[in-house]
Design brief:
7 helices; 7-stranded parallel β-sheet; single chain; Rossmann fold; 17% strand; 250 residues; binds NADP nicotinamide-adenine-dinucleotide phosphate; alpha/beta
Length: 250
């Protein structure tokens, strides 16, 4: 049976033109949502618009003023926001001795600061009774060598989400985190400083580390996002849902 959980709902996605965000956009569109989504690459924004019918906005989530402007444009076109999905994120590996201030800032400006201010930008335009989902990472709770900047940012984001959940409970807005394990998206190929061989080695290592012995598909994460965004999760707020083939818990 086809579900239609988001008919008449305005869903806004930060980072909806690739990987998990694009998959979620497709799933939301298939269930009747009116979509607005951001990203940086105009090419993939155009492709996402074609696939989902979304209003697409080129916007850098590292810049809080840009997030305010993107939200304003989306609300003018599509009305108040029912569901906010803060998914944009960047990767990158460096061992603690090699982390530069600019690398640290590049990761944190998007994954932590950017995520916080993206949610803040939406606050006045979110309908009471709505929902926010953040994309975290299992990296926030694992001691993976080389992952310090990313892990710190995602752990910070998880803390931020908890406070949003506490403060927005009075407005009946539920706030949750979906934390993917290794998922087959372009993020794998964007790790600065990693050779093809190193990426392939990382992929094999990750596959082995996952109890289900495979890397996840974007759609498997997207479905968890839609669950938490929907009324199916009406009594769930403040959680961090690991979608990771059992990596963290087993
Ligand atoms: N793939 C995994 O194994 C994995 C595991 C754990 C967590 N995650 C998290 O999942 C989320 C989605 O990543 P993905 O795996 O789907 O990778 P992806 O395909 O690279 O998607 C990342 C998305 O974020 C957007 N983005 C990045 N920086 C941005 C910025 N400064 N402003 C606006 N948009 C920005 C990208 O848009 P552009 O392409 O236009 O830059 C793209 O839409 C991220 O938060 C990531 O940390 C992924």
């Amino acid at each position: 049976m086809t579900k239609n959980r988001f008919s008449g709902k305005h869903v806004f996605i930060f980072g909806g033109n690739s990987g998990i965000g694009l998959s979620a956009a497709e799933e939301f569109a298939a269930e009747g949502a009116t979509l607005s989504l951001t990203g940086r690459s105009q090419k993939t924004l155009d492709e996402a618009a074609e696939k989902t019918g979304a209003l697409t906005l080129q916007s850098d989530m590292a810049d809080p003023a840009a997030s305010v402007a993107a939200i304003k444009a989306a609300v003018e076109k599509n009305g108040p926001i029912d569901i906010l999905f803060i998914n944009a994120g960047v990767g990158g590996f460096a061992h603690v001795g090699d982390v530069t201030e600019s690398f640290w800032n590049d990761v944190n400006n998007v994954n932590l600061k950017g995520a916080f201010f993206a949610a803040q930008a939406a606050l006045p335009h979110l309908r009471d009774g709505g929902a926010i989902v953040f994309t975290g990472s299992i990296g926030s709770v694992l001691g993976i060598p080389g992952n310090v900047a990313y892990a710190a940012a995602k752990a910070g984001m998880r803390a931020v989400a908890r406070i949003y959940a506490a403060e927005l409970a009075a407005r009946k807005i539920r706030v949750n985190v979906v934390s993917p394990g290794p998922t087959e998206t372009p993020l794998f190929y964007r790790n600065p400083g990693m050779t093809e061989e190193a990426i392939e080695g990382m992929r094999a290592h990750m596959r082995e580390a996952v109890p289900l012995k495979r890397i996840g598909e974007p759609r498997e994460v997207a479905r968890a996002v839609l669950f938490l965004a929907s009324d199916d999760a009406s009594y769930i707020t403040g959680v961090d849902l690991f979608v990771d083939g059992g990596t963290v818990e087993l």
